[in-house]
Amino acid sequence: MKLEFHGHDERYTVEQSLLNLFPGELPVYEPIQPGDHSWAVVSCREEGGRLLVSTDLCYDGETTTFFHTAALSGTDYDQEGQRRHAVGTCFFQAYHALTGNTPPWGMLTGVRPDKLVTQALNEGKTPDEARALLEKDYYVSPGRAALALETGTAAFEAAKGLGPRDIAVYIGVPFCPTRCAYCSFVSQSVEKSFSLVDPYVDALAAEIEAGGRMAREAGLRVRAMYMGGGTPTTLTAPQLDRVLTVFETAFGSALDGCGEITVEAGRPDTITEEKLAVLKDHGVHRISVNPQTMEEAVLRAIGRRHSPGDIQNAMELAARTGFPHINMDLIAGLPEDTAEGFRRSLNRCLDFGTDNVTVHTLALKKGSRILLEGLNIPSPQAVGEMLNYAEPALRQAGYEPYYLYRQKYMSGSFENIGWTRPGGACLYNIYIMSELCSILSFGAGGSTKMADPARRLIRRRFNPKYPKEYVERPEKTLANQADFSAFYRELNGKEPGPCIP
Fold first, then answer.
1. Could you give the 3-state DSSP secondary structure of residue 447?
2. Which residues on adjacent β-strands are paired with residue 229?
3. Separation of alpha carbons 485 and 167, rounded Å
4. DSSP per-residue codes, 32-83
5. What does pTM read for this prediction?
6. b/e string for 272-285 if b means 16 or more Cβ within 10 A?
7. 361, 412 in Cβ contact below 8 A?
8. Strands 166-173 and 221-229
9. Which of 6, 33, 38 lies closest to 22, judged by CA?
């Protein structure tokens, strides 16, 4: 879609709205010509303390014009946000006038739609006022606004338990038995990269050792650790033991307040009694067994080699080992799946009695085999049926939503939701999704976040993306840790204040 701006440069706002509202359309900055069938002209001017915004929109040859006004007040920073919101609102209203559609999340384009709720609660607004904000100012559907209120409230409560020097730790293992059709993560099939695993574990252990020493010297306290991937249980039992031992030894006293250690076991074809025993011996509180589907044909379509029976065997083994919490992941919208197939998968997961279920919506990511090979996927309407079944079924079984997030190119513009029975919430998921504290990341592709919630400040540092590059460039991870330490030295001597997401 060709885009033209007058009187402003809110390019990012309009681009994100375009990607959200018109899947498949990309921004093009070329002159609009007679006969063009996809374009938008967004204009903005200030007059008497008010913003006057207009959007001329053309799509598939149909055109409309919409006008929107908004008051300007407060500081320059406040007015910048008001201008951004007004431009986004006008573009959304023009879209709605032209198509008659209102996506479930309205005009929201960000990853964390419930963050507005948490902010409103921190500002002293009531839950009803926070929900009304989403519905009236952002056109979120009542059902999605209610979901956001629940998960945003969970973040609000979790923030109360965090101190200014509390952090979480992520350890990444970017290896899997095979590459799933929907995946675009930097994960390597072990079949193709077996020779990388041993040197990767060596490099990971060295990075964790240095990072733990840095955390202790900085006086930081780890509240939660999450080992993800990839599939961490692709590692052998001795390799898992080594990584967890180094973590415990390196962080030492910094783990005194750590009440949560999670490891993604993920693929049932990587789960063995020996590996689970290692995890249990190291005090792991939570594991994930992630079928994504319990349908044989869908498993084949996404490139998984295990069967529904393997999932059942893995769950029985995990239950016998005695982990306090077990999570299962499902994805709505996988190739060859149907609404009825998704219902069967969810019902089977509920039969296992796990206290956590995460329901993802398929995100069509560049580089995934789904897009490269044009695999057959359910329609957005079918995905909507899947999710409309999931919520009441989970609630009836005693689950509540406790975190949610969105991704680009999600089927039907829906969301991913973590559901838990009482007492089973994974704090790490809340911390990272609501950006409540710093996340110190280890491993290839790791994204470290340095957070000062009082100033709503986030700084990011990234590890080398690929395992080979990660192994060969330890100086990059050491530089990231030095920046992390410097961030907390910057906070020394002053009280950063309560955690405000």
1. strand
2. 173
3. 12
4. --TT-SEEEEEEEEEETTEEEEEEEEEETTEEEEEEEEEE--SSHHHHHHHH
5. 0.91
6. eeebbebbeebebb
7. yes
8. parallel
9. 38
Q: What is the Cα Rg of the chain in Å? A: 24
- Tell the burial category of 24 from Cβ atoms under 10 Å away from its Cβ (0-12, 13-18, 19+): exposed
Task: Report pLDDT for 497.
Answer: 38
Q: Alpha-carbon distance 50 to 73, whole Å?
A: 9
The answer for residues whose C-beta is within 8 angstroms of residue 80's C-beta and 6 or more apart is none
Question: What is d(CA 249, CA 377) in angstroms, rounded to the nearest whole number?
Answer: 46
Q: N- to C-terminal Cα distance for the chain?
A: 34
Q: Which two tokens stand for residue 387?
A: 């999710």
Q: Classify 307 as helix, strand or coil.
A: coil
Joined together, the tokens standing for residue 198 give 């041993």
Candidates 213, 325, 314; CA nearest to 267 is: 314
- Alpha-carbon gap, residue 290 to 355, rounded angstroms: 13
The amino acid sitting at 428 is: Y
Tokens of 432: 């990272």
Q: Please give the biggest Cα pair distance in the chain.
A: 72
Residues for the chain: how many in total?
A: 501
Torsion sign across C-alpha atoms 333, 339, 345, 346: positive
Annotate 257-279 with DSSP letters as a single string: T---EEEEEE-GGG--HHHHHHH
- With beta carbons less than 8 A apart as the criterion, state whether 286 and 255 touch: no
What are the pLDDT digits (tens) for 46-62?
Answer: 999 999 999 999 999 89
pLDDT at 192: 61
Q: Which residues of the chain have pLDDT under 70?
A: 184-193, 367, 372, 493-501
Could you tell me whether strands 166-173 and 62-71 are parallel, antiparallel, or unpaired per DSSP bridges?
A: unpaired
Whose tokens are 């490891």? That residue is: 263
pLDDT digits (tens, 9 = 90+) for 463-500: 999 999 999 999 999 999 999 999 999 887 544 333 33
